Amino acid sequence: MKEEARVAILDAAEQVLAEQGLHAARMDDIAARVGVSVGTLYNYFEDRQQLLETLRDVRGRELLALLDEELERSQQLPYRARLHGFLCCVLEHSRTHFRLLSLLFEDSLRRGASREGDLDRHLEIRREVSLRLEHLGKQGVKDGALRSEDASHYPAMLLDMMQGLVLRQLIAKQSTPADEVIAPLLRCFLDGAAPRPG
Amino acid sequence: MKEEARVAILDAAEQVLAEQGLHAARMDDIAARVGVSVGTLYNYFEDRQQLLETLRDVRGRELLALLDEELERSQQLPYRARLHGFLCCVLEHSRTHFRLLSLLFEDSLRRGASREGDLDRHLEIRREVSLRLEHLGKQGVKDGALRSEDASHYPAMLLDMMQGLVLRQLIAKQSTPADEVIAPLLRCFLDGAAPRPG
Amino acid sequence: MKEEARVAILDAAEQVLAEQGLHAARMDDIAARVGVSVGTLYNYFEDRQQLLETLRDVRGRELLALLDEELERSQQLPYRARLHGFLCCVLEHSRTHFRLLSLLFEDSLRRGASREGDLDRHLEIRREVSLRLEHLGKQGVKDGALRSEDASHYPAMLLDMMQGLVLRQLIAKQSTPADEVIAPLLRCFLDGAAPRPG
Amino acid sequence: MKEEARVAILDAAEQVLAEQGLHAARMDDIAARVGVSVGTLYNYFEDRQQLLETLRDVRGRELLALLDEELERSQQLPYRARLHGFLCCVLEHSRTHFRLLSLLFEDSLRRGASREGDLDRHLEIRREVSLRLEHLGKQGVKDGALRSEDASHYPAMLLDMMQGLVLRQLIAKQSTPADEVIAPLLRCFLDGAAPRPG
DNA sequence: CATGAATGAGGATTCATTCAT
DNA sequence: GATGAATGAATCCTCATTCAT
């Protein structure tokens, strides 16, 4: 009961944030979106800041759960297929929550300048996703699908490209099927942009 | 005379924005940084919004000028070297202005939702950089250094990876030499992450 | 049954008021102190204002009852002893409830400015105590222990000194035995600060 | 210029506080009283708290200045006359600012419970006045006008009686000439309430 | 042109009170 | 009767913008 309300508030907050931006999203707007009054928000969250932090944490944990599920499911598949599944998963989740995560991330970065150590928690999710990609990468190296040389750079590169990809879809307000956009990304990542000698 | 003042204000604005964030940067702070009073800012810029827009445009044009200069200079070199030079150029400029551009870009994205058509101007710079990369890519294809198949995706991918790269350096507050960070990026981009068969 | 609850609420209210102050004491705090929910408070008292007024009246009547009891008990004693007993009684009660009465009195004074006639009820208790002192004073005059000249001023003076005395103990957070603090007060009051000629 | 504004704000604040009470006095009310807008208040004072503290300090220092002036002036007079002058001075100042000082003092007392050490500054003024009375008392003892026995209690007693006296005038909304109310107080204080044997 | 005090709309937060369960 | 979540009016404070000097 109480939990449903929290969820409803978080969902509303995400919508309003996505539409109005981090700063423009007023508590009144969020309340109106849920269909309650401002005061109610404060029955569930300490203050605006804590509401946003909770939202970030919840969404982050959702993504990680999705990824772990996907990794579990694809355990027997070869590296390329697993990576493809993983990225699709990230893409799918990001399409839904990208603007939110992006806004909150930007904010972390901003405030990270002043309050040292706060940034750590804010980057946790990205780091967790990265860790899973690293782990996956080790399989890739073992399978002979990845060179070990630059392996440490790959997670970041992949995430960067994913992020940009989602961002461009957001801007274009279109949503190409995941396969279609991930395929060239994977081709370039694995095989390189240069023509294969053979 | 008038121009010098504008430049001073823009510089101050960038510093304050980088330190305090888009929203926290107050007109008073900017004025104080220049060493003038608030009123003066309004003699040079219509309002806060226009000051920020000008700042974004100016910095954008500076980057484009740098890139064009670099492309001019490297005209006789092979594709890989030119691309390397180009990315170094982007990296260098981004290191100096990244936080600014990132903040302003986020803001554009945010307000892009509401004010249709406004976003276009905001994305102009990224698009211009992208165009130059496309153009460079054509040489790459001609030189046989790039497959033509996914050529249309390459500019975006490269830019995404550059952006992430700069971002990570900002977060880590360290600044590895350009060559060192761009090398693996280029290796992966051109040759792929998978081991070359030969 | 109903009465016990009222008493419990009033006691809790007094504690919270004493700890947090008139304004900072929230209905939720009072309810929590009793161990009930806010709604319950409203089953026993019209609203916050009425709860506080009741509290003031109840405590006031308790003091008056104590004083009357003391006066009854000391009926046969000489003036000085009766006055001493009376003041000890006031001191004892004040030590327990001073902060409360002080807060409520201040509040009366404040609102007395706006709502004419309201103040009267608020000052009732002080007036009642004063009346008893006046009455006692008449015995003092008869006994030859008081000059009749300024007799009308004495009750107020005594009360003022008592109030200050309690206040200073509150501030110092110490509680000297009643006799010890009342003795010099009585000496000064009855014999004066100037050395006796004899 | 800037100082005039500060003074105007402080005066307005005092009026509004006296009329509405410590808590009911809104920043908007104070601003309206001065004839400026809220924002202006914040150009002169950090926040509400600081405005009130400043007001208390200023009024306190005004009283001390008055007292020191009076003590200076009466230097050659005998103790009784000097004390009379001193008390008149306190009475006069209190009549003008009593409600203010009383409100602020009550507030100090309240918050003194929680924030230890804060109370000290709040009680400073009362303590300063007390010090001057002590000093004056020493002359009284030397002059043979005061018994030294309870001398340490006298300042507090006098102040308590003065405070009550002013309070009662405030409540009664009448303002008896200073001499008339101070005379019986002094008579009682110096000669005692009991009839002189001689 | 520069100044900087004044403006006042705007937003986060609190808390007495209500009322459906 | 008891509960406690919902309500929303009320208030402090901020800061972009203006304009008289």
Q: What is the compact description of this entry?
A:
With 198 residues, chain A is mainly α. Chain A is built from eight helices and no strands. Chain A has helices at residues 2-20, 27-34, 38-44, 48-73, 79-114, 118-142, 154-172, 178-191.
Poorly predicted runs of chain A are none
Number of helices of chain A: 8
Give me the count of strands of chain A.
Answer: 0
Q: Which value, in Å, is the CA radius of gyration of chain A?
A: 19 Å
Q: Largest interface by residue count?
A: A-B, 54 and 55 residues
* Structural class by sheet pairing and helices of chain A: mainly alpha
Question: How would you explain this protein's 3D organization?
Answer:
In chain A, helix 5 runs antiparallel to helix 6 (118-142). The model of chain A has no long low-confidence stretch (mean pLDDT 86). The first copy, chain A, is elongated, with a radius of gyration of 19 Å. The first copy, chain A, is mainly alpha-helical and 198 residues long. Chain A has 2 domains: 1-45, Arc Repressor Mutant, subunit A (Orthogonal Bundle), CATH 1.10.10.60; 48-191, Tetracycline Repressor, domain 2 (Orthogonal Bundle), CATH 1.10.357. Helix content of chain A is 78%, strand content 0%. The structure holds a DNA duplex (21 and 21 nucleotides).
